[in-house]
Amino acid sequence: MGEVDPAFIQDVEHRPKLAAPQAEGIPLIDLTALTSYSPSDGSAVAASTAVERLVAEIGDACKKWGFFAVVNHGVAVEKRERIEREAREFFGQGLEEKKKVRRDEKTALGYYETEHTKNVRDWKEVFDFTVQETTLVPASHKDGEEGVIEWTNQWPEYPPGLREACEEYAQELEKLAHELMGLIARSLGLPTNRFDEFFEDQTSLVRLNHYPPCPAPHLALGVGRHKDSGALTILAQDEVGGLEVKRKSDGEWVQVKPIPNAFVINVGDVIQVWSNEAYESVEHRVTVNSEKERFSIPFFFRPPHYTMVQPLKELTDKHNPPKYRPYNWGKFYATRKASNFKKLDVENIQIRHFRI
Ligand SMILES: O=C(O)CCC(=O)C(=O)O
Ligand SMILES: [Fe+2]
């Protein structure tokens, strides 16, 4: 492909600088204290001090960056390698094969190659699946239309091992997501289990991303600038690199350096609201390059559709009143979905529409 379809071209102010600084990147946090903590062993006191330190590190990272990387997270490396292998195999097939599980108006899950972010087409193809076997979402994004529909995953015939690899990976990541929410709760001065009630069901999603080499990496993006709308994102990226985060301190785009077997974590809009902006959801984007393809796998941890998202009572008082009106997560997400993936002339729904 020599010429790039104009649908992919970013406005001048959003085009990437191809040498974004790598210095002063996101914090790297070692989760050993969490995975080795066992209240019954003799070193419980030392272990709990280590967990307290970890909680403080997480709190600092959430405040300063909204992003951090974790190592020693307890997710089995074989499970990650397996899904990465299956994803490569899936995307390596011809378009005809992939289109057999293509997403359409009715089935929101599966393969898709024409996603847009803020009305510009992304240089990528994706495969989406939900974590909960039966995921319920509102049938309509319109207020007053109350029905729900069931989302079911579309699994391809090839590669035959994709489904199992995805299901196993999702289970592992769900455990890590709960652990991280526990640490985040503690860092906000809340009990470890404070967020559990919001995840008895879920609308969590895992996405396999493939960014093919792009002949115009200075004009297009793999994913345009955006914030993640859910609670927390846990990203596995390969060794190629391309993720950039808008640094809060100065608004510069900085690269998130790939670290083998680490996950990149970021706070989404829902935590921004729950925490009444103690933590903010930070803008990020993905650059592409002309030589190498790149693969990544975000796990989007999201509450069930019926959740009313609002600042937690414990984190607000008369000096720090709630900054958001409650909004229904399912309707918010359905509205996003209804407009997100095609070119539109209007802006997507945003949490700032609920800002008081
Ligand atoms: O591929 C990546 O590094 C990040 C993708 C991303 O931000 C997203 O899918 O929301
Ligand atoms: Fe994202």
TrEMBL record:
InterPro entries: DIOX_N, IPNS-like_FE2OG_OXY, IPNS-like_sf, Iron_ascorbate_oxido_reductase, Oxoglu/Fe-dep_dioxygenase_dom. It comes from the Eukaryota. Pfam families: 2OG-FeII_Oxy (PF03171), DIOX_N (PF14226). Residues 202-303 form the Fe2OG dioxygenase domain. One of its GO terms (molecular function) is dioxygenase activity. Keywords: Iron, Metal-binding, Oxidoreductase. Belongs to the iron/ascorbate-dependent oxidoreductase family. This is Jasmonate-induced oxygenase 2-like. It comes from Rhodamnia argentea. The lineage of its organism: Eukaryota, Viridiplantae, Streptophyta, Embryophyta, Tracheophyta.
